[in-house]
Amino acid sequence: MTDLELLQAGYRYALSLTADVAEAEDLAQQGWLRLHRRYGGRKKTSLLFTTVRRLFIDRFRRGRRVELVALEDLETEPEDLAMPSLEHVDLERLLAGLRAKEREALFLHAVEGYTAAEIAELTDRSRGTVLSLIHRARRKLVAEARQLGERQEAGR
Amino acid sequence: MSTRPFDRKQPGGPHSGGVDKQVRSFYRRATLPPERAQALLDAAHRHRVVRRRRRLLAAAAVLVVAAGIALVRTVLDARALGDRVAAEVVLGHTKDLDVEIATSSYADLAEALDKLTFPLHEPARLRTSASNYELVGGRYCSIQAQLAALLKVQDARGRTATLYVTGLSAELDSLPGTTRSLEGVEIDVWNEHDLLYALVRDAS
Questions:
Q1: What is the predicted ipTM?
Q2: Does the predicted model carry a pTM greater than 0.80?
Q3: Closest of B191, B154, B137 to residue B169, by C-alpha
Q4: Which of A105, A150, B78, B122 is the most buried (most CB within 10 A)?
Q5: Cα–Cα distance between B126 and B158 in angstroms, integer?
Q6: Which residues on chain A are in Cβ contact (under 8 Å) with B20?
Q7: Do residues B107 and B126 lie in contact, with contact meaning Cβ atoms separated by under 8 Å?
């Protein structure tokens, strides 16, 4: 993996945590520079992710983080997980509506290909919790996507 | 045997439908602006260069300090050795030991002191001295546990001085030539033809 590829991976991970482009850019920048300060020539995805994650948690604790808005609990569960195709902006909005830890778990699995055990190790959660987070994230996205599709259909 | 959907490396799972695929597509389209990414890469590069320079400077500083300490120790060791030799030769002079071989010939003395492992002859410094030293005689002695010769010499005014001669060991070789006064006597220490000489005489 080249430096640029690693940097972009760090940015995407930051985006999965913040759901905000500007915050993600800032987080990726700080994470990248801290990685070089602390680990010198060692460049590993897991090190960068851990660094970015710690920075994110620090910000969250200081209250500087963007507000985390959770979707309301869904009254009805989707029958399956097939999701209507969404426009980029719509998906961005739906992802932003997830909890940060749900978005993070889904990102690490779906985008980075981490196993539940690896995500559990990286995020210091149990494997069962990670599985639950991913499952909830998917269901919320599907439910929201369907509601969005229905509203768009009704608007025509 | 069934496989668990999360225990593998392939992104997305068989039960994820289109969710994972769309999420993956979304994030893979998200990239840092090229100019910002390049700026970060450049900053990291600069940081590496600065870090390397700092390490080199730190290593150089450690070397300089180590060399300084070694130099100081060498100087202190040589000074301590000089003090020990001075004390030894002064003691031999003040005891005013009798010579075992009385002769005015360096050649005869060298022949008599045949256990010496170095040649014995009049040093140039005495030969050219204005004091016109004459050999009176000599005997065996030791300097720093090393076999040496103790020679009695007399100047034109009849004052006796003690001349020590020994071979240059690795330790004595580090002894710098000096002239000093100690306990009412004057001591000259010098090297000549790979021999160490020390001339001790009462201060006039």
A1: 0.79
A2: no
A3: B191
A4: A105
A5: 15
A6: 106, 109-110, 138
A7: no
